[in-house]
Amino acid sequence: MSLASIILVGLSASYPIPGVYFELDFAQGPVAGSSSPRTALIIGNKTTAGSATIETVVYGPTSSTPVQTEADVISLFGTGSQIHRAYLRFTAINPTTQLNYICVAESGGANASTTQTIATTATSNGNCRVWCGQDFVDTQISLGDTASVIAANIVLSVNSQTRWPVTAAAVAGVVTYTARNAGPEGNWIRMQALITPATGTIGTTTTLTTNSFLSGGTTADNNTNALATIKNTRYYTIVSCDSDATNLGRLVTQINSDAQPTVGIRQRGFAGSMDTVANVITLATGQNAARLEVIAGAACDMQPLEIAANNAALYSLLESGAAVGVARKNFSNFPASAADATLWQVLPGRNGIGGSPTTAQIVSMLNNGVTPIAISTSGASYLVKRVTTHCLNGSVPDFRVRDPHKVSVCDYWGDDAVALTQLQFGGKDLLPDVAQGQPPPPSIAVMPSLWGGALKGLVSLYGNAGQFQNTANILATAIVQKEVSPPNRLSALFQLTPVDIADQFALLALQTG
Residue 351: inside a domain, yes or no? Predict the structure, then answer.
């Protein structure tokens, strides 16, 4: 008796191109490492100082204009640009994963900015410290320095910080800080300035004493053309320097389209947000995608692009096992060990615990597809739990693929299954399984049982490595068959169950005497 055909999206019975087609569907069933290299791609803006061609050229270690060092990044994309800042965050953690870059045309809107006003002449020596994000620079104040002199010296100090995402200019004691890149992403740059010792002691004061965002950046850029350039090319880890919902929607649509069987390019996207809890939840649920992660970093003093690059670098390094030799799946309460701490470079924001999301807000974010960063009672920042933005089935909560390792483990298995099939069975003839007692097929032929045996062996390998659970059930429910239409197709169905991660330990103690 012939079984019903196993249907893959876009792979009709009339599709004629030979190949190995793998469809990976997440959150299936009732509701309740790899042979392929995994490179990364940063999508963002350059400054006018950068020489890179926008939107139509992907740069990397093997491009015609190779990018291998920070100097290369600065030459192509400009110092302090979105891409430069993301590069710094990524490579500070992960020097292993190959990085590629593509420029989106910069916004045609305004640059975000803020001002600092210096008042009166200094009556003694002191110091003005200016923070930009997690970084700071000091400017010496000397007895007799006028407001204009102090402001001019601050400008020199700030503009010497060529990695910063802002530049400074001063007029009559007023320092203006302007984002290097135009558009609303600059509105998430935090700055603060303080004079020491106490301002009354040195006789001058400063504004911008509150750790606050720049403002006035307008008009989001548009990633459409850059996405068209990378269409159908695999960059497994894609870092978006843009937290705009429209641009993220375009990225998710393309990632999902490329993951279809007839393309077979499985990738993941990462974005950051410094917005309010309500707004970041709206951003994540609006995408509701297993292949997208949105990190909420308002508790720290980084830009969205920086927190996205930071976490993407961390995940890609540890998932591959490059750092410790064992593929990491559980990132809850990271850093959870001294070894983890060497890879965690997110400082707590200067607002301290007061800038951390509350327990209720953390619960809401986790249940709505947001990865939160919080501040512990000891004052350290930490990653609460890593989640995908997939949290809804229609309007009903659906957490079956909340844990991102379920995506990466299945992607690894899929890559291995495709590579195994191409290596062992490519170029062979197709025969039905022979009856018991009949002679085996010639070596130039493949049968359902041969291909199925190889795939089941791969399942067992993953099970033995702790990547799958309930391996016996995966094997027992697997279906491998020769199709009737078209007759030159073998099809297989495997219900993969990646291992769970140990998130919670509930201990009840009863004192009885």
Answer: no
